[in-house]
Amino acid sequence: MASPHKVLLSLLSITLFSFSVSPVSSQHEHPLDPLSPVEFSLIRDAVKRSYGASGENVTFQYVGLDEPDKSLVHSWMSSQASKKPPPRRASVVVRLHGQTHELVVDLSSHQPSIVSKEVYHGHGFPMLTIEEQTDAIELPRTHDEFIQSIKNRGLDMSSVVCSTFAVGWYGELRSRRVVKVLAFYTNGTVNFYMRPIEGIVVVVDLDLMKIVKYHDRFATTVPTAEDTEYRLEKQNPPFGPHLRGAAIVQPHGLGFDIKGHTISWANWKLHLGFDVRVGPIISLASIYDLEKDKYRQYAGNIMWRHTEVGIPDVKINEVRSDVSLVVRSVSTVGNYDYILDWEFKPSGAIKFEVGLTGVLEVKAVNYTHASQIKEDEYGTMVGANTIATHHDHFFTYHLDLDVDGAPNSFVKTNLITKPVAEEGVPRKSYWTVSSKTARTESEAQLHLGLEPCDLIVVNPNKQTKVGNNVGYRLIPGPIASPILFRDDYPQIRSAFTNNNLWVTPYNKSEKWASGRYVDQSRGDDTLAVWTKRNRKIENEDIVLWYTLGFHHVPYQEDFPIMPTLSGGFELRPTNFFDRNPVLKTKSPEPVILSCKP
C-alpha cells in the first residue's frame, strides 16, 4: 500500500453565500487562504486608483481569490519550509459606465496593482450586490404610480416592503441589466413572503438606477397575517411537542485543531476557505492511513458492529461508536435558507448533505378553499388566499478528486443480470459486474437512476497489496433530474443539470457549472457547452461535477415556515485502504453527567 495514502479534493457548490471574517494580517500561511479584510481594502484602493477620476463610480460585483495553479500549490506543499507561497492574486469583476470589467489584482507587491484588465462583451451580467438591490427596492416608494396602486388596494404604505427578483432570459436579442421588484405586506407579521401584493411589477435598470417599466395588471385579496408568524415569542400556548434537552460536552477540549485555515481532526487534514459566490471551499482534504491519539466526541451513531453467535459457547458483540467532523454553512437567499454540511468520517468517507428550510414562495389568489380551484394554479393551497408554487432546487458540486495523485480515471461498474447456464442448478439467474473506463467526456455523462451501478474514480497507477486500483466511489442519494423541455429557456440556461454526473479534465477557468455570469445568461457558457469538446479524461487530472436536486411540491406542513428537507450523496473509499481503516479504533468513553430531577 502506498504510504501514506491520501485523497485530495476541492469541493465547491454553486449556491450563493454571505460570510464574515475577522480582521487579520494580509500575510498568509497557505496559498489557498481566503482574502482578508486588509486585502479587500488594498484591492479596492488599487482598482479605484487604476481608473483615475472614474474610480468613484466603480461598483464591485465580485472579489475573490484567484487560486494559484494546482501544480504551484502542490509544489509549495511538498517543500513549505524552503519555498515562498505562489504569487497571491485576486479575481475582480466591476461595473463601470454600463460595462463589465474583469480584473486580476496582484497582491504580492508592496503596492497591489492591476495586472490584467478586460471588458466582457458576452451574454449575462455579474452578481447583484446588496447595495444596488437595496437602492432598487427603495425606488417604488417615491414612484407615483406605485403609490396610487397601493392606495387603490386600501393598503398602508408604511407596511409595504419590496424585494428584487431576477428577470431571466426568454429569447430576447438584447438584454438590459434589470431586476423585477415585487411588493409584499407586513401588517401583522414579519413573514412578509406569505403576503404578496399581486399584480404589481416594477422593473428597475440597475445601471441607471431608475424604474423603466411599471405594470399594475390586476388585484387579488392579500392573504391574511393570521397563522403566518414563526417567531417563538409570537406563539400562543399550548406549546409542543416537548423535547428533552441534550448535553453537548467536550471534557478533553476541542476534538480538532485549527491552524490558520487548516483543520486537523482524527486522520483527516483539510483546508477551509471562503468565497462570496459559493461560500465554504474545502480543498486539499487528506486522509492518512495512520492512527492518531486524539479524543473524539461521542456522536451516538455506529461506525461498525457485529454480533456472532455461530460459535458454540462463544458470543461476540463488537461495536464502535461513529464520530464525524462536520463543516456546516448556512446561507439565506431571499425566502430560503440552505444548510450545507460536509461530514468527514474516520473511515475515509465524506458525506454531503443539503437541507432546505425557510419560507415558501407563494402567490395570492381569491380562493379560500381547495374545492374552489378549477384550473391549474401551479401549486398547493397552504392557507386561505395562498398558493405555494411548485419549484426546483439544483446544487452542482465541483469535485476535484486527486486520488493518491493527480492522474485519475472514471470507471462505471454496471450490475448486470445473467442467466444460469449450468445444467441441474435450480437458480435461473444471478448478477455480476461489468466495468468500463470512460475515455472521453461524452462517455462519462450519466443520467442516474435507470440502472444499478457503482461510480468510481480510480488511480490506475496505484494499486493495493492484492492488486486493485485505489479509488473513491460516489454514492448518490435520491435522484432528481430536470423535467422541463430541453428547449425551454430556463432549461437552456441550466443545461448543466441535464446529467446528474459529468467528468471533465481539470481546467482552472472552468469553475462555475452555470457559467461566470448567470444573471440573464443564455446558456452559452456552461458545463454542457464545455463538454462538447469531448476531451480525453482517461488517466488525466479530472473533475467530477455532481448535481443533486429537489422537485418541491409544497404541502401544508411547509407553512408558514418549512421544516428542513434534506438530500445528499457520499464519497466513500473503494480499495483505497488494504483493510478496514477503523478496525482498531476505540470508542470514546461515555461521559456521565449528574442530573438533578
UniProtKB/TrEMBL annotation:
<keyword id="KW-1015">Disulfide bond</keyword>
<protein>
    <recommendedName>
        <fullName>Amine oxidase</fullName>
        <ecNumber>1.4.3.-</ecNumber>
    </recommendedName>
</protein>
<keyword id="KW-0560">Oxidoreductase</keyword>
<dbReference type="InterPro" id="IPR016182">
    <property type="entry name" value="Cu_amine_oxidase_N-reg"/>
</dbReference>
<dbReference type="InterPro" id="IPR015802">
    <property type="entry name" value="Cu_amine_oxidase_N3"/>
</dbReference>
<comment type="similarity">
    <text>Belongs to the copper/topaquinone oxidase family.</text>
</comment>
<dbReference type="InterPro" id="IPR015798">
    <property type="entry name" value="Cu_amine_oxidase_C"/>
</dbReference>
<dbReference type="Pfam" id="PF02727">
    <property type="entry name" value="Cu_amine_oxidN2"/>
</dbReference>
<dbReference type="InterPro" id="IPR049948">
    <property type="entry name" value="Cu_Am_ox_TPQ-bd"/>
</dbReference>
<keyword id="KW-0732">Signal</keyword>
<dbReference type="GO" id="GO:0005507">
    <property type="term" value="F:copper ion binding"/>
</dbReference>
<dbReference type="InterPro" id="IPR049947">
    <property type="entry name" value="Cu_Am_Ox_Cu-bd"/>
</dbReference>
<feature type="signal peptide">
    <location>
        <begin position="1"/>
        <end position="26"/>
    </location>
</feature>
<keyword id="KW-0801">TPQ</keyword>
<dbReference type="InterPro" id="IPR000269">
    <property type="entry name" value="Cu_amine_oxidase"/>
</dbReference>
<dbReference type="Pfam" id="PF02728">
    <property type="entry name" value="Cu_amine_oxidN3"/>
</dbReference>
<dbReference type="Pfam" id="PF01179">
    <property type="entry name" value="Cu_amine_oxid"/>
</dbReference>
<feature type="domain" description="Copper amine oxidase N2-terminal">
    <location>
        <begin position="30"/>
        <end position="110"/>
    </location>
</feature>
<dbReference type="InterPro" id="IPR015800">
    <property type="entry name" value="Cu_amine_oxidase_N2"/>
</dbReference>
<keyword id="KW-0186">Copper</keyword>
<dbReference type="GO" id="GO:0009308">
    <property type="term" value="P:amine metabolic process"/>
</dbReference>
<dbReference type="GO" id="GO:0008131">
    <property type="term" value="F:primary methylamine oxidase activity"/>
</dbReference>
<feature type="domain" description="Copper amine oxidase catalytic">
    <location>
        <begin position="247"/>
        <end position="289"/>
    </location>
</feature>
<dbReference type="InterPro" id="IPR036460">
    <property type="entry name" value="Cu_amine_oxidase_C_sf"/>
</dbReference>
<feature type="domain" description="Copper amine oxidase N3-terminal">
    <location>
        <begin position="126"/>
        <end position="218"/>
    </location>
</feature>
<dbReference type="GO" id="GO:0048038">
    <property type="term" value="F:quinone binding"/>
</dbReference>
<dbReference type="GO" id="GO:0009753">
    <property type="term" value="P:response to jasmonic acid"/>
</dbReference>
<keyword id="KW-0479">Metal-binding</keyword>
<feature type="active site" description="Schiff-base intermediate with substrate; via topaquinone">
    <location>
        <position position="336"/>
    </location>
</feature>
<feature type="active site" description="Proton acceptor">
    <location>
        <position position="293"/>
    </location>
</feature>
<feature type="domain" description="Copper amine oxidase catalytic">
    <location>
        <begin position="297"/>
        <end position="583"/>
    </location>
</feature>
<comment type="subunit">
    <text>Homodimer.</text>
</comment>
<feature type="modified residue" description="2',4',5'-topaquinone">
    <location>
        <position position="336"/>
    </location>
</feature>
